[in-house]
Amino acid sequence: MSKTKNLLLRLDPALAEELQAVASVEGRPVSEVVRDAIRELVDARRVDEDFQQQLRVAAKAQQRLLARLRDDR
């Protein structure tokens, strides 16, 4: 059995209405449309060099913070 995580998503009413219209026209549940959109975003970030560089910088900062918290300076 696949595990899932529930998320609360707050949308502007107009955007929510547009999302519902897209899902309706495509004959899919809103949750499926949202999952696909998120999947596309994440896949795009995987090949985006600017994002990957930002990710490396953020990871290094987190590593430094963890070392300080462990007192491994």
Q: Could you walk me through the main structural features you see in this protein, from its secondary elements to its overall organization?
A:
The protein has 73 residues and is mainly alpha-helical. The chain has one domain. The protein has helices spanning 13-26, 30-46, 49-70. The longest helix has 22 residues, at 49-70. The chain is elongated, with a radius of gyration of 19 Å. The termini are far apart. 0% of the residues are buried. The model has no long low-confidence stretch (mean pLDDT 94).
Largest sheet: none
Rg result: 19 Å
Structurally, how many domains make up the residues? 1
The coarse overall form would be elongated
Q: What is the string of SSEs from the N terminus onward?
A: HHH
In helices, the fraction of residues equals over 70%
Structural class: mainly alpha
**Span of the ends, CA to CA:** 43 Å
**Quantity of strands, as a count:** 0
Question: Beta-strand level of the residues, as a percent range?
Answer: under 5%
The number of helical elements comes to 3
Low-pLDDT residue spans = none
Mean pLDDT: 94
In short:
The chain has about 70 residues and is an all-alpha fold. The chain has helices spanning about 15-25, 30-45, 50-70.
